[in-house]
TrEMBL record:
Protein name: Class I SAM-dependent methyltransferase
Molecular-function GO terms, alphabetical: methyltransferase activity
GO terms (BP aspect): methylation
Presence of the UniProt keyword Kinase in the record: no
Enzyme Commission number(s): 2.1.-.-
Organism whose genome encodes this protein: Pyrococcus kukulkanii
Superkingdom as given in the UniProt entry: Archaea
Residues in Methyltransferase type domain copies: 3-44
Length: 74
């Protein structure tokens, strides 16, 4: 579902992001700021993977979100 630019005030994803295939995660994250109003918020709550070689944490998340907002590859 494509939404117009700057149409929503808040993007919320709760306990679903870990289901998004790895190859689609950054496309999904890049899309979030595009549909936000200028003062919009993004809220992501999810589970932490354990027993995996992949680690997900908040370090660098704000920087990567800013890059996604201006279209810089992360």
């Amino acid at each position: 579902m494509l939404l117009p630019d700057g149409i929503v005030g808040t993007v919320i994803t709760t306990y679903t992001f870990h289901h998004v295939p790895d190859e689609e995660k950054w496309d999904t994250i890049r899309e979030m700021p595009r549909i936000l109003k200028p003062d919009g918020k993004i809220i992501v709550a999810d589970v932490r993977r354990t027993g995996s070689s992949k680690r997900y944490n908040h370090r660098g998340a704000e920087e990567n979100l800013q890059k996604a907002r201006v279209g810089v590859p992360v």
